[in-house]
Write a structure and sequence with these properties.
The complex is a heterodimer of chains A (about 300) and B (about 300).
Chain A: H1 24-33, H2 36-53, H3 55-58, H4 90-126, H5 128-142, H6 148-157, H7 161-188, H8 191-198, H9 203-214, H10 216-239, H11 251-258, H12 267-294
Chain B: H1 2-29, H2 34-39, H3 45-54, H4 61-73, H5 87-122, H6 127-141, H7 144-158, H8 171-200, H9 203-210, H10 215-252, H11 258-267, H12 271-299
Helix pairs in contact in B: 1-12, 5-6, 5-8, 5-10, 5-12, 6-8, 7-8, 7-10, 8-10, 9-10, 10-11, 10-12, 11-12
The chains are: A mainly alpha (about 300), B mainly alpha (about 300).
């Protein structure tokens, strides 16, 4: 997916060396704080999560109820972002949509992370035919380009919130599996892991005490970047009418409904799309910034 | 080279088999009797028996798969439930359109991305570099369907430069190709920049500069040619993602491609159409990736020995 190339070094305001004796995480936090892109991304992400959590408090109107006499009103003092084709307040719908989006993202990325990390650990640690079997299976999942895998899953399971989560989650399992496997393959031959093995540590201990904690960096970067991918996939499915169904204020579904009113009331379509773009951008900035901060090659 | 190609071919065989199992399994994952799904709810017992026999549904699953695969290899992808036309015929009508759209998109994004990437790399940390960084981040973050509607609003409705939808002429494809290529341009720009920076650090570039070769020639003849090799791989991958993105682009611009076909197929529960589209698109993607890898190995002999 886009965003997977280590390219632009956004660390132009290179942070000075972290205080002596600091831990890995303190050092990382220090580096992230010195990375302007990561900070901008973090601000967007935090604002988005807070808006989602506080939607019932912040939303001025009911997201599902509107007055038909109040249809397609342009943004004004009462309805800050205007109203939609059923007279519903768009700001309230966007806020509740954020809530829905966070749910989808956490569940789908959680699913992908759980399954992907388990498969990646198994493939990387056990190796040989287990590795071959798992990675060839991942190749098969990745053979369906972009949204096609999600479409196939929706075709089999049907539409709706739960199935969107499953479709968007399975779509990302290979990404996590690959990242964790690559990390395990590098770590496996390192001296501290070999020392643990020489001391007679059991496999489970090696995996959970040494391999997994040391793979956290790439996993965190992937989690942030994939939050963005999930949002694009899920809202894409809803836009096609194959995801979360109306009247739910899911952003892709809102945009899809608004298409018929594009010329007379463009704000109805533009606002949910802008919300998607800004949140995706936030997660991408944060993920890119974290990668620059966590990449051991860039650490002194 | 022959050994490399053989090895790659052997590797894609299980993937293609898996892809066909996946598309075969689709019909069996849907709750209900597959024969009933294919024939419709009102089908008589004779029709159901005929369908079961034709599709091998009266056999055990493994036998059914062998029938399915055998039919698919002979170009028989079943009959559309909705239009009663062979799925292969529908795909022959629709798939070339999507391929053309994805190809145009990769062409647009290739030119935009490489130019932007080279400029950003040669003026590293300048204002232009920063702008390119921002533009590429926005490019990968904007949802394709929203960008489509936005472009339509500006260039079709307001400025009336291009038609808002439909197909037929090249003018109909300009906006869809730009929209579809937006995120690829961003990815290619980032990749080009990273690859150029890597190459510009090499000794042979320094040597060329030291012996007084013009800057322009160093950049385009010495650096870019070598930097292009890893970018090639991205072209292949992005072409595949554009096939996926085409689903959304075709919906926004009402274009008659395979993306619309599969979405309409899912709505109508026309499973043979969905299965056939998935199979053909995935197979195309796998083959494009194979060709990219082979091209990569051709241009960079070091790859073949790994």
């Amino acid at each position: 997916m886009p965003g997977s190339t280590l390219a632009f070094d956004t660390t132009d305001s290179a942070p000075t060396a972290a205080p002596r004796g600091s831990s890995f995480w303190a050092d990382t936090l220090h580096r992230v704080r010195g990375n302007r892109a990561a900070v901008a991304g973090a601000i967007v992400v935090v604002t988005f999560v807070v808006a989602a959590l506080l939607a019932p408090v912040l939303a001025p109107f009911d997201p599902l109820k509107g007055r038909l006499g109040n249809r397609l009103v342009a943004p004004n003092a009462v309805h800050w972002l205007g109203t939609d084709e059923l007279g519903r307040d768009i700001l309230s719908r966007v806020l509740y949509g954020a809530r829905l989006t966070v749910q989808i993202q956490v569940a789908a990325v959680g699913l992908a992370l759980g399954a992907g990390a388990a498969l990646g650990l198994l493939a990387g640690y056990v190796g040989r035919w287990v590795d071959q079997l798992i990675m060839r299976f991942m190749d098969i999942l990745m053979a369906f380009p972009g949204i096609f895998l999600a479409l196939g899953i929706i075709a089999a399971l049907g539409t709706g919130l739960g199935n969107v989560i499953i479709a968007a989650g399975i779509f990302l399992v290979p990404q996590f599996a690959r990242v964790v496997r690559a990390s395990v393959l590098t770590l496996k031959d390192m001296e501290f892991v070999q020392a643990a093995r020489a001391l007679g540590q059991r496999d489970a201990a090696i995996v959970f005490r040494y391999l997994l904690p040391n793979s956290l960096g790439p996993i965190i970067v992937q989690t942030s970047l994939r939050m963005a991918t999930v949002l694009l996939t899920a809202s894409g499915l809803s836009f096609l009418g194959l995801g979360v169904q109306p009247p739910s204020p899911e952003w892709g579904a809102m945009l899809s409904n608004a298409r018929s009113y594009m010329i007379t009331a463009p704000h109805v379509a533009m606002i949910p799309g802008l919300a998607i773009a800004v949140v995706v951008l936030g997660f991408n900035l944060l993920g890119d910034g974290l990668r620059d901060s966590l990449d051991p090659r860039l650490r002194e | 080279m022959i050994a490399y190609v053989t090895r790659r071919l052997l590797l894609i065989a299980p993937v293609l088999l898996g892809v066909s199992i996946g598309s075969f399994a689709l019909l069996h994952l849907v709750p209900g009797d597959p024969a009933m799904i294919l024939a419709g709810q009102e089908a008589t017992e004779e029709v159901l028996a005929k369908i079961r026999h034709e599709h091998g549904l009266d056999q055990p699953l493994a036998g059914q798969f062998v029938v399915y695969l055998g039919n698919a290899l002979r170009g028989n992808l079943g009959i559309s439930i909705q239009s009663r036309q062979p799925v292969a015929t529908l795909l022959a009508e629709r798939f070339p359109f999507t391929l053309r759209l994805a190809f145009l998109a990769i062409l647009v994004s290739g030119v935009l991305g490489v130019v932007a990437g080279v400029i950003a790399a040669t003026r590293r940390n300048s204002m232009i570099d920063l702008m390119a960084l921002l533009a590429s981040l926005v490019g990968i973050s904007v949802p394709i369907f929203w960008l489509g509607l936005l472009m339509m609003l500006v260039f079709s409705v307001r400025l009336q430069w291009f038609p808002a939808g439909g197909s037929g002429t090249m003018a109909h494809l300009v906006l869809p190709a730009l929209v579809l290529g937006a995120s690829s341009s961003a990815v290619i720009a980032r990749m080009t920049r990273a690859s150029m920076l890597e190459v510009l650090r090499q000794d042979y570039v320094r040597t060329a500069r030291a012996k007084g070769v013009q800057d322009r020639i160093v950049i385009y003849r010495h650096a870019l040619k070598n930097a292009m090799i890893p970018i090639l791989t991205v072209f292949g991958l992005e072409f595949g993602y554009n096939l996926g993105g085409a689903v959304l682009t075709e919906t926004v611009f009402s274009l008659p491609g395979v993306g619309r076909l599969i979405v309409e197929g899912i709505f109508a529960r026309d499973y043979p159409v969905v299965q056939g589209s998935m199979l053909v698109v995935a197979t195309t993607f796998v083959i494009v990736n194979l060709l990219t890898d082979i091209a990569y190995a051709w241009f960079d002999p070091r790859i073949r020995y790994n």
